[in-house]
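forwarding from the other thread:

> can someone predict this with cytidine-5'-monophosphate?

sure thing
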Amino acid sequence: MRIRWLVLFLLLFSYTHGVGVNKKMNLAIIPAAGSGSRFGGEVPKQFLVVAGAPILIHTLRRFEECTEIGAMIVALPANEIDHFGEVVRQAGFEKPVRLVAGGAERSDSIRNALVAGRDYDPEVVAVHDAVRPFVTSHQIAAVVARAREVGAAILALPATDTIKEVEAGLIQRTLDRRRIYRAQTPQAFRFDLLWRANESARADGIPAAMTTDDALLVERLGCPIAIVEGSPQNLKITTPEDLLLAASLFQEMAGRMGREDHE
Ligand code: C5P
């Protein structure tokens, strides 16, 4: 009798503590295949060098630092794969960084990365824009943890401006600001949920150009998506003004770290 209880206890303990259970890894997908048309200039913004490294490398470092993430898949313009492969190699990441060719729209790039991601059989996938290098490993871990609980979670900021819906230059209505959040990334999902959401969008002919974020596809399925409060610092570098701001944020961070080293 006593033995039976002991076996039951051991089974329960190993289940709740993950002992002997092969815990699945979490994957990061970084879409970086944009041409940067809104930014202008020859070089897409994710490859511009700021504070000693391309913006994309800064972003990958945040995921390298986050213990919740096991591997990273980066979608790149097909003609950048060879060159950027070398840049990644020189950056010396410890986690696997796999490079795939992106597509015409952001959601096409995500799709290609998801196809590659199936090889890792991940539990959760965190999708993060290459051009948001100021995300913290704490934010990544928080979004992944919520996605594990709820199925999907995104970093978002409560709106501070009042938002108007406009048509042909005329206001149609004012949205209730207390209910408005600005979606950021990372956006994390149980891998099978994001895969199913993508398949469903394709089957229903949702235009890739309309899918500006991944949560949208999961919303279509009617599945819950949790909000984790983001920070204004998690800037998306879109315009030349954003790049100036990013340069000064990097400088401020370097100054802060330098001061900490001397304390
Ligand atoms: O164009 P947008 O600002 O939404 O881009 C967000 C992220 O998606 C960027 O990191 C960009 O490089 C990436 N992207 C992509 N493939 C595309 C278009 C954008 O990976 N075809």
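The chain has a mean pLDDT of 92. thats all i got for now
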